[in-house]
Design brief:
The chain has about 220 residues and is α/β, with parallel strands linked by helices. The protein has 11 helices and 6 strands. α1 links the parallel β1 and β2.
Length: about 220
């Protein structure tokens, strides 16, 4: 199989660096795409073009989208031979929706603060509390500088007509603080009619629990 991995806000392919070798061990080709999330000139169409360039002539691609990568994925599916689509703690758009609208339309901020009150961590967003709380310190020592997400891609409509007629899987981290599990379950049901597959880990489960996520991507195959 050929796996193409789309990162979330900021666009750093590095978030997949613990997943890539695990999936390759199964004899599969894996491409983690780096996107110019901090480039104010780049929008969703530019992101999709870069993913399509990475796919090239490959067929039967498994497309994996993390977080805001969910807004790039449907634009790719309409132009490439994707055989399976996997969302990982992802924003699942409706046709024509922007990423900025998504938060308001889904009530994500309210879900996040309610989960914070239940869990006892701060409501105010900071990367360590909401992204890195379960990522090992040894992994963080190798992290590149964080990239801010430029606004253009947040404001650009996700211009697709329908989801592809292929299997779509929604994977959610049990300890995701940004998009809490009950919130992800509701959005997946409302927007795709799908139930989520729950794995351990927070929003960046690819960094904190790569083995569990790799097994899901490989359909339960041990890694």
């Amino acid at each position: 199989m050929k796996f193409v991995l789309i990162p979330g806000a900021g666009g750093a392919a590095w978030i997949w660096h613990r997943i890539v070798p695990l999936v390759e061990l199964g004899g599969h080709e894996v491409i983690a795409v780096d996107l110019p999330g901090d480039d104010a000139r780049a929008g969703l169409r530019d992101y999709a073009d870069l993913v399509l360039h990475a796919i090239g002539p490959r067929r039967d691609v498994v497309l994996v989208a993390q977080s805001m990568g969910g807004f790039t994925a449907p634009l790719v599916c309409g132009r490439a031979p994707v055989s399976r689509l996997v969302f990982v703690n992802a924003m699942i758009p409706r046709p024509g929706e922007t990423a900025a609208e998504w938060g308001r339309n889904t009530g994500s901020a309210e879900a996040r603060t309610e989960a914070a009150d239940r869990g006892g961590w701060g409501r105010d967003f900071d990367p360590h509390t909401y992204f890195l709380h379960d990522v090992p310190e040894a992994v963080l020592r190798g992290a590149p500088p964080p990239r801010a997400q430029a606004d253009r891609a947040m404001q650009e409509p996700c211009d697709f007509e329908r989801w592809p007629d292929v299997p779509i899987h929604v994977v959610a981290g049990a300890d995701d603080r940004l998009f809490p599990l009950d919130f992800q379950r509701r959005v997946a049901r409302d927007r795709l009619g799908k139930e989520v597959e729950v794995i351990p880990g927070g929003h960046l489960a690819a960094l904190s629990h790569p083995g569990e996520l790799a097994r899901v991507l490989l359909g339960g195959q041990a890694v």
